[in-house]
Specification:
alpha+beta; 328 residues; 2 domains; single chain
Length: 328
Amino acid sequence: MIRRSFSSEKDFVIELTKEEFTSLHAAKKGVFVALDVEEKYSYIVGNFREFELALLEHSLDGLLRFETEWSHLAGNIHRFNRLLVNFLTACRLYHDQVDREICQIFGHESSERAKLKAARNEEFDASASYRVMEGLRNYLQHRGLPLRRVNMDMFRNPDAPSDTEWRSIPYLDGPALVADGGFKKQIADDLTSLGKRVDVRRLTRDYFQSMARIHQLVRSLIKSQVTIWVEEVLRGLQRYEDKYQHRKHVEVASLADGKLVERFAIFEEPIKELNSLNKTLTAAANISEHFVSSRLCRSGPSVEEIERIADERRWEQLHRWHGNLGTD
């Protein structure tokens, strides 16, 4: 006789059918696959964040302590090379492993996998930044480190002539990279057309934006299946709680003739983490249209005026919302 039960204690058992056991096991595995997908995107977000923070930190350091020693300048180049390597590696990891996970969920010949491949091809065809960053990832693995220069730029703000803005700009030398070899013709042409001073900030932001769009698609592809898995696990936990008032950690076991054949645990924490990553890791598909700054506004509307305008817009949105509901 095969008995399938989920229990955290020997004496607290609920019998399961073979189908229930199999379904619960598949759901538990599925939740962790979905969590893996979100965690891989979090590596991209985290490495992009570190790269952007390093730009701000480098600019502030330049303002407070302007260094011209070769060792200091070389150290800056090494730092941004390391951060760029981390970012590109995280993106490559995402491409390779999420493709495998989509196959695991839907199959190698599935329409979902075809849609993912089409989305990647679309980004490659539409964006020179995407193509260059894909090429740089291969270059740094097989040839060398791409960055050779990090500039500290200072310029006057035309809207406030008394203000000087400090910016850190890592540069690539497009023709020099092409001369070193290892790039496909289309990517070599892109690098050549970008010239000797290629602003890496634009490349990383455009590439991150492309990765965010791809991840938005992945989320939409797996959403309905993830919902089924989550509901299955929560039903199992709820079923156990209804009988034994316990749901924190429940063991699911398969027995044959009184001997353990297979067992696994179900618990709610992975689902909570999955929901958290979905909420906090926004797929910032328009990141290139935004920037972060701590600059003080010396001209334009006052803080009070900005707050007044914001309040008016909120009231307008609320009024439109009530109008859509058909209320006064």
